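Let's inspect a concrete specimen:
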Amino acid sequence: MSQSLVLSLALLFGLATVLLLRSRAVRWWEALLIGLFGMYLGQTPVIYSTNGLVNWLLSGFTHNS
């Protein structure tokens, strides 16, 4: 995954986190988004597994047969 895509995802997850925290109603899937934001922001070693999952999900939606 390119650095510009990682930065875009981090900004997207960050914006989603701010909006969720302002609404004061965080459900399980929203907590997952916050966790993804934290992993992309922190670049922890778990990022490689998460990055693979995100690439797999995104390639499923953008794959042309």
Notes: DSSP finds three helices and no strands in the chain. Helices lie at 3-23, 28-42, 47-62. The first helix runs from residue 3 to 23.
